[in-house]
Amino acid sequence: MIKCAFYEKEITPPLGCNLPGYGNLRAGSDVKDRLMAKACVILDENETVALIAIDCLHITHDIRDEIAKRVNEFTPIKEENVLVAATHTHTGIPQKGYDSDQKAAENQNCYFDIFPKLIADCAILAYKRLEYSQIYFAMGKVDGISFCRDYIMKNSTPRTNPGRLNPDIIKPVSQTDNELPVIFIKNADGKPMGAITAFACHQDCVGGTEYSGDFSSEISNQMKKSFGQDFVILFFEGTAGDINHFNVNTASDEPDHYRKMGLKLSGEIIKNISFAEKIKSENIKCRFEKIKIDRVEVDEEKIARAKHIIETVKPIPGIKIAADGTSKEQYDLMMAKKLLWMLETSPEIFDIPLHYIQIGDIDFFGLPSEIYCYFGTNLKERNNNKNCIVATCCNGAYGYVPTKDMFYDTIYESTPGSNRMDKNAGYIMVDKLIEMSKQ
Predict the structure, then answer these.
(1) Which residue, among 136, 256, 246, 264, has the nearest Cα to 202 in the 3D structure?
(2) Domains in the chain: how many in total?
(3) Could you count the other beta carbons within 10 Å of the beta carbon of residue 349?
(4) Under a CB-based contact definition with an 8 Å cutoff, are residues 182 and 225 in contact?
(5) Of 27, 234, 386, 413, which is most buried with the most CB atoms under 10 A?
(6) Are residues 210 and 336 in the same domain?
(7) Which pTM was predicted?
């Protein structure tokens, strides 16, 4: 029989740390929702896996490896069996490698030192609490809260986030993924222990300078109201590289829109749990591989233009950066810095980590980076298993992964710097994950 356990702990950093996720610096000024790290450990007779979700924008491969190493030092869980993912909240913990001012750096340096240990300890403490369990799976659907953010315009050119009520919008480039899978776990006595879910929508609904886990924080609040304060739900970002919450047909969002999203998602989860089916098999399998993918090619003209922008455009502190309007120059400056940073810090060939985990008759796929929705739906269709979860922002961060037909200067996700890997990266990853699942 399978054993499972959950553990969560608060990881809200000191006030004054930088909140990554947008082009401008933002120092944390308050706490809207406590930031959390959560772990679920699942064990059968032969294998043990640990799934970890963190309220942060990205998790880099070196931090993931540090976490996995510590988990292995304190438990029998193999390093390759530890999956670490970011929930991709844009109001989460500070991260190394992102711009910050001197004051923010002073506040967050000590946090960076202890952060990997705090995360690893979630999995270690979950392992210490393993108990015989029953695992169930259900698939829900939620419409009306997620939208493609790339649109075909009247000039026939696609554009990212063209603005609300823009009369030049013709239609979205692609469809969204409305599926809401949930793994629900009870102990042997039937007491609810926790759940695992994923949904394809950017967690960038809050904004401002208050720490928040975004709509997944509200999902957690609602699940605890229904199943008790000890109930832990892990949220994973689905393939949401080109999906966010902005409905361009409305003038604005209602106040605390993210809470309404969390309410709708948690309501669907709770409804589907009531008729979730118990898994037929209790075998655990895990496969972790790194594959080689080339860095994206950037022509010399774009590099020269980026250098010229950096030399001639003066940064304006505190301005809200957008691709059009009064801050267009600042947006171009941000993208120029991103491009040169990528060329200076990225290898010519990436080692891209991929995870496939089988939990009974449930397939869990873990991909790094921010992946276009097409690749998630394609992976699920080709996998031919309705009991399937596709998670992104897992084990590493390598920029956006668009489809080949979306490489335009007007598409944010394919702009060099935002996009770092070869145009075929998404297709290569999906092919490899299908191969891993068959093996």
Answers:
(1) 246
(2) 2
(3) 12
(4) no
(5) 234
(6) no
(7) 0.96
